[in-house]
C-alpha cells in the first residue's frame, strides 16, 4: 500500500498544484514581463525596461489612487474592527435570542456587492435618500455624500462598515474561546468588568484582532465594485481606488503593460504592509493559547 | 453607576431566577440590550428602506418627510422591473455558473486536502506551504495575464473563464478551501484509514467512503461559501461576459441600474429580487454559515 500512497498523493493534489501553476504562478510571472513592456491590446508588446515603473512617479492619477485607497483602508478597517468587536462583546454577554441578533448583524454581509451599491446610491441620494431625509428631520446639516469630493470616501467607508458581520462572527467565536478560568482568576483578585476586559479579553483576543486586521487591510486595498459602479472614480477622481485604476488602464485604455506595472506595485505594497504587520505583531499579539494546547 | 459599584457577593439571593443555571448578571443587562438595539437599528434600516422603496409609487417615494408604509403597495414594481430585462435568464446563468463552480471546488479541494492531510509523499508539506501563499496574493496581479490567456484561447464571452478555475481547486484564493478541509480532515482518527487499507482499500476508496462521509459539516461550509462567492462575483462576469444573454444576476443588475438610473422603485425591486435568494439560503443554512465563518477565523 505504501508504494501507491505517494503516487495517489501526488495525483490527488494535482488539480490544486496545476491550478496554482496555471492561475497563480504563471500569471504572476507573465504580469511581471508585461509590466516591462509597452503593450496596447491588438498590437505587439515592445520591451521598455523599467519605463512603466519610472512613469508612475509622474502619474498624478497613480498617486491620487494610492492616497484614495490608503484613506479608505485607514478609515474602513479600524472602524469595522471597532464596531464588530463592540457588537461581539455585547453578544457575548449571554444575551437572549443570540441567533436572532447574530442574524440581524450578519445579514448585510450577504448582500451581493452590486445590489449593495444600488441600494446605497439611493440611501446617499442628496434629495430623497434615507440619510439626508433622516438628517433633515432631525434638523441636522445634510451632505452630498458620494456626490461631493470631500465626503465620497467617508461615504464609502460608512457603506463598507455596514457589512461588518463576518468580522463580528469571527470575534464572537474568539470571545467564546477565551478560557473562563482566566475571568474567574481576575474576579477572585477583586477585578471588575473593566479589569477583566483589559487583562483577559483584550490580550486573549489579540490573535483574532490580528487576523481580522490583516484580512481587512488586504481586502480593502483591493476595493473595486463601489468605485466602478457607484462613483466611476469621481467626483474629481476622489474615489479612484487603486484596483479600479488598474482596471481602467487595462480594460478601458488597453494599456496592458502600464496596468501590469500598477498591479505589481500594488502587490509589493500589500506584501510590505503585510510583512510590517506581521513583524509588528510580535509586540502585541499573544500566542500563549497555542502553546497551552 | 451605583449598580456598577455594587460588589458581586452582596447581591441578594433569588434575583433573576429565570437565568437558570447561569450566573445572572444583574447590572448592565438593560444597558446591553439597549446598546444592541442601538446597533441593530442602523443595520436593519437600509433593508427597510430597500423594501419600502421597492413597493412604493414614484410619487409617494419623493414625499418629504419620507413615509415608511407604502400606500398603495406597488407590487407591479417587481413585475415590471424583472421583465424589463431577462432576469430569469440571468438567474439561470448565475445558477449554472455557481453549481459548476461548487462541484469543481468541492471535488478538487477535498481531494487535494485528503492528499495533504492523510497521504504521505515526498515534498508534501513544501507544496502545501507554497499553495497557501496563493491565498494572500492580490487578485489584481493575476487578472491581466489571465484575461489575456482566456482571450488567446478564444474563451471570452463564455462561462469557461468563470468556471474552469474552480476545477483546479478554486485557483488562487480558493486554496483557502483546501486549507480549511485539510484542518478538518486532520481531526478524523487515522485508525479508520489504516483499517480500510488493511482490508485492501485504495486511497480513493478511503477518501470516498471514510473521510468524505465524516466531513459533511466542512463540505457544507465550503459549498455555501463557494456558492455565495460565485453568486456575488461581479468583476469576473464583467471581464468575461459580453453578450447580454450570458449575463449573471450581478451583471444584469449593473446594466439595469445604468438604464433605469432614476427609477428607484424598479431599481429597489430588482435589487431586492437579487438579494432575496441569498437571504433565504442563509435562513435555511444559518448554522452552517456561522460555523463556517467561525471555522475560517479560528483556525488561523
Automatic annotation (TrEMBL), chain A:
The entry's keywords: Cell membrane, Membrane, Transmembrane, Transmembrane helix, Transport
A GO CC term attached to the entry: plasma membrane
Highest rank taxon of the organism: Bacteria
CDD domains for the chain: TM_PBP2 (cd06261)
InterPro entries membership: ABC_transporter_permease, MetI-like, MetI-like_sf
The protein, known as: Sugar ABC transporter permease
Primary localization: membrane
Membrane topology label: Multi-pass membrane protein
Similarity comment text for this entry: Belongs to the binding-protein-dependent transport system permease family.
Automatic annotation (TrEMBL), chain B:
Localisation per UniProt entry: Cell membrane
Gene Ontology biological-process entries: transmembrane transport
UniProt cross-references to Gene3D superfamilies, sorted A to Z: MetI-like (1.10.3720.10)
Organism superkingdom: Bacteria
Keyword hit for Cell membrane: yes
Keyword match Transport: yes
Domain ABC transmembrane type-1 stretches: 91-285
Any single GO CC term annotated in Swiss-Prot or TrEMBL for this entry: plasma membrane
CDD domains on file: TM_PBP2
Assigned keywords, A-Z: Cell membrane, Membrane, Transmembrane, Transmembrane helix, Transport
InterPro entries with a match to the protein in the record: MetI-like, MetI-like_sf
Membrane topology: Multi-pass membrane protein
Pfam families in the cross-refs: BPD_transp_1
Chain ranges passing through the membrane: 30-51, 87-114, 126-150, 162-185, 206-231, 264-285
Family under the similarity heading: Belongs to the binding-protein-dependent transport system permease family.
Name of protein: Carbohydrate ABC transporter permease
Organism: Nonomuraea montanisoli
